[in-house]
Amino acid sequence: MSRTRRIRFSVLFLYLFFILTGVLMLYPFWYVLMFSLSDPLRASVNKLNLYPSHFSLSTYKYVLTQPFLYTGFKNTIIVTVFGTLISMLLTIGCAYPLSKESLRGRKFLFSLIFFTMLFNGGLIPTYIVIKQLHMIDSLWALMVPSAVSVYNMLIMIKFYKGIPSELIESAKMDGAGDWYVLLRIVVPLSGAVNATIGLIYAVSRWNEFLPGVLYINDQSKRVLQVVLNGMLREDSLANQPGLQDLASSPESIKMAAVVISIVPILAVYPYLQKYFVKGMLLGSVKG
Amino acid sequence: METVHTYKREKPATKRLSRLRPIYKDRHLYLMLLPGLLFFVVFKYIPLYGIVIAFQDYDIFRGIRESEWVGWATFKEVFAYSDFWVILGNTLQISVYKILFGFPAPIVVALLLNELGNRYFKKYVQTILYLPHFISWVVISGIVLTIMSPTNGVLSILYEWFGMEPKNLLADPTAFRIILVASDIWKDLGWGTIIYLAALTQVDPSLYEAATVDGAGKWKQTWHITLPGIRNVIVLLLILRIGLLMNAGFEQILVMQNSAVLEVSEILDTFVFKFGLQQGNYSFATAVGLFNSAIALVLILGAQWISKKFGEEGLM
Question: Looking at domain A63-284, which CATH architecture does it have?
Answer without folding.
Answer: Orthogonal Bundle (1.10)
